[in-house]
Amino acid sequence: MRKPKPPPPFNELVRRSAVSDRDRFAFLVDLSGRQAPPRDYPHWDVLRRLPPPEGITAEEWWLVLKLQRLPVLRPLPLLDRAGEPFRFTVPDTVQEQLHHIDMGAAGTIGIPQPVTNPQARDQYYVRSLIQEAITSSQLEGAVTTREVAKEMIRTGRRPRDRSERMILNNYLTMQRVSDIKAEPLSADLVFGIHRLVTDQTLDEEDAAGRLRRLDERRVVASMEGEVFHEPPPAEQLPERLEAMCAFANGRTPNYFVHPVVRAIILHFWVAHDHPFVDGNGRTARALFYWAMLHRGFWLFEFISISGILLRAPVQYARSFLHTETDDNDITYFLVAQSDVIRRALEELHSYIDRKSQEVQALESQLHGLTALNHRQVALITHALKHPHQSYTIASHQESHRVAYQTARTDLLDLHQRGLLEMKKRGKAFAFTVLSNLSERLEQLERE
Hints:
By secondary structure, the chain is mainly alpha-helical. The chain folds into 3 domains: about 10-70, no CATH class; about 75-350, Fido-like domain (Fic-like fold, Orthogonal Bundle); about 370-445, Winged helix-like DNA-binding domain superfamily/Winged helix DNA-binding domain (Arc Repressor Mutant, subunit A, Orthogonal Bundle). It is built from 20 helices and 6 strands. It is elongated and about 100 Å long.
């Protein structure tokens, strides 16, 4: 990835414009008050390649945008290496995304029924944990197939290599984040998350769950050695961590920050400070999830942002660089990440829609099978919507008001046809629907 070209210094543009032609400068100031800014909040490296509005140069266009942005930027308690604050604003494009997130991830209106169904939600929760664990690890270099990673997690086998260990760590970390979502952020909590994320994956095992030391200087650089980011020195990290926790818990700053904006800035903060020897990106994303769940955005137990980031890693990295090359304007990261969140929400809804359609198709197949009686069709239909439900002869007998022998015959027949799995539970047998139900129904149709 190429490092973005930094913008021309604002003060230099003002000095040059005001000195050379005061009337021209006055025109540009007036234009900044009349012209609507671009919705996508472009960086200079993007803007300089676009045709400027008629009658002005690219540099004048940039000056107009900076005149619009600077008065509305608000300082944050996050400081750069020189002690200058990062700043942000919430442009219209982010406001729109925040509205969709508020509506789609915090309340209950419009939430898909499978997620609110306590018996079906577990399969979506586990799917999200696995998805985030795999893709967050892949962002940091883990190399394995999804099928192998899923098999490891679902069967509980031990990881075979560092990549699998990273994925399992992320899976356990996401479970932990859900458990501690009500707790305020503290240094101990951050260290605990980092310890989970990096367990048995660091060259120096004692680096897990502690800050970088003075002799552990870290930079973010390209394959060619070009330095993209040099984090703050290690001696500043304890104080910066304390400031980060205060911000995450809403104690700073002294004005309202939308909870989603706060979560995104927390994500950026960890990545910028790079407080650990390794595992900073995974820790940053885990803390983003903590922040979202902590503020009541409960649907984020079912959402994976890393899958979106993995498909466009350069855009993810560039949003950090745009911030650091343009006067610490963190708005670039807000714009990029709010779009990622929106897309992740849309992907969840699309996934649930597909699964719902599959269930409906299976129900249609069931009703077309003349070999099954109406009681058997009703049981399988119920099991499709409640995949973790188990059935007994007694429960089937009670549901349909039939004799014990009739209920027993129904369930044993479904087991023999390969539609139900039968296991001994105490003195009785329990029946559950098989995972390959669709394939079995298709086979039954052909028989």
